[in-house]
Write a structure and sequence with these properties.
about 40% helix; alpha/beta
């Protein structure tokens, strides 16, 4: 295999030591956050631009109806295309909301609100990282987890605005 093919295989393998090294602590923290949320019966509200990571998709799917996801269609070139079709299908048992705005506009959100079992916001995870193999393993991205109920509530309000808007711009932009 060429080096790029070998790298593509490695970052697609959740058990790969190369993948774990490249994704680093950002991956570790996000995997732990989603795993802990499932164990505590917490709700997560995610607004995502791209989603294809072989660890993150199953972790969201495991949350079932406690995973509330607004999912864009990526940066497609033609109306009707969907870079996230496979993830969308995999999340069929979750509370999934389509945000098919590309190519006219990009639904470029990358945040997750962590809520307790009573759906009260507790923390927000945000940053530049797409929830993709390449976003986690081959790009210089960042993320921050802020455990602040006021900020988490603010992001949750934005999540609801995005979910209600569908492909249109939300009526409330912050």
């Amino acid at each position: 295999d060429s080096p790029s093919r070998k790298l593509a295989k490695e970052i697609a393998d959740p058990d790969s030591k190369i993948r774990h090294f490249l994704a680093g602590t950002l991956r570790d923290k996000l995997v732990r956050l989603l795993t802990d949320a499932a164990g505590a019966k917490f709700h997560v509200y995610a607004a995502l631009f791209e989603l294809d990571d072989p660890e993150l998709v199953p972790l969201l799917r495991a949350l079932k109806k406690c995973a509330h996801v607004v999912l864009g269609n990526g940066s497609v070139k033609k109306k009707g295309e969907d870079e996230n079709a496979n993830a969308r299908e995999a999340l069929a048992g979750c509370d999934l909301h389509d945000r098919m705005s590309a190519p006219r506009a990009l639904a470029h959100n990358k945040f997750l609100v962590l809520c307790d079992a009573d759906k009260k916001p507790q923390a927000v995870w945000t940053g530049s990282t797409n929830w993709t193999k390449t976003g986690l393993c081959t790009q210089a991205n960042n993320a921050v987890l802020v455990r602040n109920t006021s900020l988490a509530r603010f992001y949750l309000e934005q999540w609801h605005a995005l979910a209600a808007a569908g492909a249109a711009p939300p009526s409330t932009l912050y």
